[in-house]
Specification:
The structure is a single chain. The chain contains 1 helix and 2 strands, in the order H-E-E. The protein is an alpha+beta fold and 50 residues long. It has a domain of 30 residues. The chain has a two-stranded antiparallel sheet.
Length: 50
């Protein structure tokens, strides 16, 4: 039974065509930068608020 459950889980979760979303360069809430799938800017950026 454990083998069958494990095999069923692997078949369901092993999709070679599905990839994790990669960070992308785009204009976002904090200006142009590298954003992840959650709209968090992940690149180091410098603000010119001097």
């Amino acid at each position: 039974l454990a083998f069958a459950v494990t095999a069923a889980w692997l078949v369901q979760h092993d999709d070679p065509d599905q990839e994790e979303p990669q960070p992308e360069w785009r204009e976002g809430p904090n200006g142009f930068g590298l954003y992840d799938k959650s709209d968090w800017r992940i690149d180091p950026h410098v603000t010119d608020d001097d």
